[in-house]
Every structure is written in C-alpha cells, then in structure tokens.
Amino acid sequence: MKDLFQYAPLLFVAFGLVLILVSIRGIINGKRFVRQAQRVQGVVSDVRTRFTGRGEHLRANQWPVLTFTTLEGREITTEAATTSDLGTGDETEVLYDPQDPTTAMPAENTGGSYGGIVAGLIAIVIGVVFFFFGFWDGGSKSGCELQRPDGSFESVACPPGIGIGG
Fold it and tell me: How far is it, in rounded angstroms, from Cα 164 to Cα 136?
C-alpha cells in the first residue's frame, strides 16, 4: 500500500496532461470554427438555463437561443454551442457553420479558454513536487520500520546516527 501512495502524485501529472491536451484541442477547434464560420447579425430569442452539480456546488449555465438569417437567406433558430451572459432580446454578431447552420455561437464567445491549461500546469507542478518530496523523506515520516514476529511492519523513529532521508 505504501508503494501505491509513493506513485499517487503521478495521477496529478497525468490529470494535468489530460487537462492541457483537452484544452489545447478545444482552442484549436474553436479557432478552426472561427476561420470557416460565416458572420451575420442575430438576436437572442430565448435563454435556456441548465443546472449542474448539487448543494453548494450547484451551478447555473445560460445557453442563448439565437435567431439569425444565413447569407443564403434561411432563417435559423438554434441553441448556441457555448454559454453566454446575453439576455433575451440582445442583438449580437453570430458565427455559424455554413455546412450546418444550427451550429452557431455568439461571436463574443470565440476567444478560447486558457483556464484548462493553467489548471493542468498547476496539477503537474503539485504532482511533481509531491513525487519528489516523497523520495526526499523516504516515503514515510519516520523513515524506519520494525518487523514484528508475525511478519507485519511498524513505523518507528530511526535510531540516532542513521541518516535516512537526509
């Protein structure tokens, strides 16, 4: 079990790497969408609120319903692909996919989020620090174990003069 905890900080590193990769993928896909999207004026015709979490972790996200006319003249009403603080009746520039106009978002929400990259880097730093800290102190506070007659081990203070972990 002790060996498992010695490598548990690597989970922080793995989690951080996954967060970074997912965030980078999202940013790249967002930039690709912006490059190919058509821009038109639209209006928020409704706002749908979705709740996630429970209790004190309950969060509300607002998804605007956008109404706009494509460059080809089709009137589209669709829920935005991103959340927004826009309210019903707000006019906004809309970006939509010309191949699938129901994939649309307010132009103000296309900046991409670097928060996932920052969170991933923090998780990696924490994992690396704890990983190396575990090696510095020998993986336990006392650094010494006493084997009992029944074969089990007990953590004990190291005798004076034994330089474990230092």
Answer: 9
Mode of pairing for the β-strands spanning 75-79 and 100-106: unpaired
Contact by Cβ (8 Å): 95, 30: no
What are 139-163's pLDDT values in tens digits? 444 567 888 888 888 887 777 766 5
Q: What is the DSSP string of 127-147?
A: HHHHHHHHHHTTTSSSEEEEE
Whole-model pTM: value is 0.62
Residue 8 DSSP one-character state = T
Nearest to 110 by CA among 19, 22, 29: 29
User: Which of 62, 67, 89, 64 is closest to 77 using CA atoms?
Assistant: 67
